[in-house]
What does this fold into?
Amino acid sequence: MSIPHEPQPGKLVLSVLAAEAWWEQHWPEFRTNLLQRLGPMDYETPALPFDHTAYYDAELGTPLVRRIYGFERLVPLDGLVAVKLATNRDELAQSRPDGTRQVNLDPGLLTLERLVLATGKNFTHRVYLGQGIWADLTLIYNKKAGWVVLPWTFPDYGTEDMKRRLTELRALYKTTREAAATAALQ
It folds into this structure.
């Protein structure tokens, strides 16, 4: 029989995808608001060109750039729904007058075992979390192989560059957990 227990919290990560013009015009103020709500960041990628699909071009514009952010704060795994609902509100606040998005925000939780992104879209491999939000198991981590790409992993998350950056985030997460465990013993 399995005995239920609370899992370790995950590291909050946020993918921000937008056209270069949005970053120049809106990012400084948007970043300030994110920090007020989500706490300090401890990881930030440079601008990563996003050319893996044209899916977002018509809505967001071009050229598209993605940045990945890691936050110091750890989030209970069942807290992902609240974070996604909040980022959905942020996307709406940044929308153009005609209602189209200018920015795509994909929050997720990184643990030692996996990267899970939150989405409002159902699909066969996604698990419903509640309030219209699904969990997308994007990558799993294997001690021998590192990050393992799954058949449904988004192409940009399967690149060696992205997996290297996620490994850096994973190391930060591991250090944060170890520090919290040490502090709890004192």
Notes: The helical segments are 20-38, 57-60, 80-93, 160-185. The first strand starts at residue 10 and ends at 19.
